[in-house]
Amino acid sequence: MASSLYTVITLLWTLQDGGTLHVYNDRLIKIAFANEEINAICKTNVMYKPDYTKFILSYYRIDSESKEITVMQSLQSVEIPPGRENKSETLNYPFKIKPSMHSSVSGTYYCKALWILKNQVRRGNGTFILFREKGYTEPPLTMWMCLITITIILTVASIMGTVLLFWKREWRQIKKCPAQRPAPPHTSGSSEPPEPSYVELGPREPDVYFAINKSTGSPLHKKVPAVKVSQQKMQEITDVYENNTADLYENI
């Protein structure tokens, strides 16, 4: 009789203080990459009573030796809304677990709530997380900045090198082919244009003519520089040549 009464009292005390406290995991199975951040949600059924306003919410796993390995832990505080005293409500508490926290170990992860004042613990049903091989890792921003800087430097250097190459080529051409001096203007009073260069290739006097002129003391025995002559001068030279030839025959 006494034991039955004790059981009833214990049951009533449990229903009064902690019978409505529950903790749930958001999923049963989850797949993630080893280098990814895990988003977990712990659903906790809390009671709006002064003794249940503060509790410690933990996210942990069980290792091969059945030991609890705490991954993340936080202290939660609940404010009692007006008119909600002695009532319960389910609240969601998200967790963002970094790779350095979960160590990419596949296994079952649990949510756990510990009400400090009542020293009561509730656990969730657990979520099995399977970690796969590492996926693509986004390079850091500093690496992108270094690549952009190197690309800009190489582009500027290429442009400057091309400009310098063209400048050197033009400078060499200028040194090899200096500017020619302008031809002196035609100072003759006549309006006749200068004779073409092929006039210089006109017929020359025979050697006999030069020998006779040399013996008679003609000033034509001296060698004179070749100059450009006009057609009229050429005709005069021809007439002189014919007269001298006639004199030569008469003398003979």
UniProtKB/TrEMBL annotation:
Record has Transmembrane as a keyword:
yes
Q: Which InterPro entries match?
A: Ig_NFAM1, NFAM1
Q: Which residues form the NFAM1 Ig-like domain?
A: 29-132
One GO cellular component term of this record is: membrane raft
* Signal sequence, start to end: 1-20
Which GO BP terms sit in this record? Answer: B cell receptor signaling pathway; positive regulation of B cell receptor signaling pathway; positive regulation of cytokine production; regulation of B cell differentiation
Asked whether the UniProt record includes Plastid among its keywords, one would answer no
- Top-level taxon in the UniProt lineage: Eukaryota
User: Which keywords has UniProt assigned to this entry?
Assistant: Membrane, Signal, Transmembrane, Transmembrane helix
Q: Identify the stretch(es) annotated as Disordered.
A: 178-198
Give the Gene Ontology MF terms in alphabetical order: transmembrane signaling receptor activity
Membrane spanning residue stretches: 141-167
Q: Which Pfam families match?
A: Ig_NFAM1 (PF25830)
Q: Which PANTHER family match?
A: NFAT ACTIVATION MOLECULE 1
UniProt protein name? NFAM1 Ig-like domain-containing protein
Query: Which species is the source of this protein?
Result: Podarcis lilfordi
Taxonomy of origin reads: Eukaryota, Metazoa, Chordata, Craniata, Vertebrata
